Amino acid sequence: MKLKPTKYIWMDGKFVQWKNATVHLITHTLHYGAGAFEGVRFYDTPKGTAVFRLADHTKRLFYSAKAIGVKMPYSQKQINEVVVKLLKKNGVKSGYIRPLVWYGEGHMGVNPKGAPINVAIASWPWGAYLAQESIKMMTSSFIRIHPQSTVADAKINGHYANSIQAVLEVKKKGFDEALFLDYKGNVAEGAAENIFMVKKGVVITPPVGSILPGITRDSIMKLAKDLGYKVIEKTIKLKDLYGADEVFLTGTAAEVVPVRQIDKKTIAKGKVGPVTKALNVAFMDIVAGKNQKYKKWLTYVK
Ligand SMILES: Cc1ncc(COP(=O)(O)O)c(C=O)c1O
User: Fold this and answer.
1) Atom of ligand 1 at shortest distance to CA of 155?
2) 276 ligand 1 Cβ < 6 A
3) Is the pTM of this model over 0.85?
């Protein structure tokens, strides 16, 4: 997806012009993939721009950084403050924020010890990620990264080579998004989203272990419970998914996306189901600042 540049990117303590936010070719993470990042959305609300669950994203950024041996040179509070300042300076009302931590210039060899630690935060306007009312998924022949191969629940740059392989594979076959099974053959998640199914009114999602435990996943689970649905985390088989009444994806970029088909199987009648619809509407109200019950999830840019 081609991006529309904004004015500034924050890089290692300074706001620099978008075009000047560059790195050297001999940057450790560029070669070996051990970086950590986040994806955060900000929304236009009646009380101005607000960032959705900023503190939780920053907390996960620090968790992911730690997983690759990085000691963050800033506090979580400082990062949160920088995000707000950046959004103020860029003046965009809604979009996406990308904090990134990487091993920098001048060190090669797999061991990152001694490489400089760099931190940057960019933001840009970003519309719908999957850009359709409902999508078709295909089960990838690649499995989601094995939890004993890496810290699978951290958001580490290199993990996305796994997602990219899967996306390239399914796009070639005309599908919109890849579905990952885990190393046990159970349903894991999408290439960049968590997955939910609804069966007889119960909202079901795979447990943590092989997935990235999404902040949207957590929000939807809380919201669904508050709306009176039974919510359970349990192992899902592909055949359970095929036989679901509804299937949807959640993610910061994707938000809530109904799935109408998986492989050759149309889900229920291929229409957006009532539970998905109710959760989607309620979620979009929350992020748009229209539900005071969840105002603690919003950080206003003032
Ligand atoms: C692999 C993967 N799973 C799940 C998610 C959803 O996580 P979140 O809701 O925190 O954006 C993402 C997106 O960040 C992802 O990349």
Assistant:
1) 16
2) no
3) yes
Question: How many CB atoms are located within 10 Å of the residue 122 CB?
Answer: 20
d(CA 19, CA 210): 37
pLDDT per position as a tens digit, 128-140: 778 778 999 999 9
Contact 252, 41 (CB under 8 A): yes
- Catalytic residue selected from 47, 59, 85, 155: 155
Last residue of a domain, one of 78, 94, 124: 124
Closest protein CA for atom 2 of ligand 1: 192
Looking at the domain assignment, is residue 201 inside a domain?
yes
Whole-angstrom distance, CA of residue 229 vs CA of residue 233: 13
The ligand 1 atom at the shortest distance from the C-alpha of residue 216 is: 9
Is the minimum distance from the CB of 205 to ligand 1 under 6 angstroms? no
* Alpha-carbon span 217 to 144, nearest angstrom: 17
143-172 pLDDT, tens digit each: 999 999 999 999 999 999 999 999 999 999
Domain hosting 206: range is 135-287
Q: Is 215 in the pocket of ligand 1 (CB under 6 A)?
A: yes
Across the strands, what pairs with 121?
Answer: 10, 99
Beta carbon of 39 within 6 Å of any ligand 1 atom:
yes
Which of 124, 153, 185 represents a domain boundary (last residue)? 124
CB 80 within 8 A of CB 113: no
Our count of domains for the chain comes to 2
